[in-house]
Amino acid sequence: MTIEYATRYRTRSHIPAEPGTPYFIEKGHGDRAHLFGDLVTVYAGGEQTENTFNFFTVEGPKGNIIPAHSHPDTHEVFYVTDGAVRLFVEDLEGNQHEKLLTPGDFGFVPKNCPHAYRMERHHSRVVGVAAGPGGTFERFFENFGAPTDALTLPREPVVPEPGKFATVPQQYDVTFLPDHQWRSSGS
């Protein structure tokens, strides 16, 4: 059994809004959002960690590459628990790296490094952690995508309306790079 809280983001949540409150969340019952073809579940965010880190999962089907983006003030971790995820990263010198991550594999993306990923197998899951001096970006998913109570992937991809691309990402330390080209063979 989990306790439900009301937050400024949701009428009900299993995550307490105040820092310093211990809590437990059953599998999948964090704050959920659909974005593109994925289900994002946030288990801890800035409110609980005094803006020092967040913890979330991204589950999705085999599909298209998530658009290239960077986080000017946030480091991001990718840890694959299910399926396979191809991570694309460009370092600060402009060298591009590509790695297929399978269960147990880890990828680290420093702040300011362009990156993207693609689910390579159906039912893939990434555990993500983001931290940095700019705070956390977990509320990006529900503000850019669509909050959901569903425990499943979206039936149809949730593609944000064009106006959101110009406003929402910058509020959450996300910079989309629409002209970025990946020179690797896997893109």
UniProtKB/TrEMBL annotation:
Residues 61-119 form the Cupin type-2 domain. InterPro entries: Cupin_2 (IPR013096), QDO-like (IPR053146), RmlC-like_jellyroll (IPR014710), RmlC_Cupin_sf (IPR011051). This is Quercetin 2,3-dioxygenase. It comes from Streptomyces tamarix.
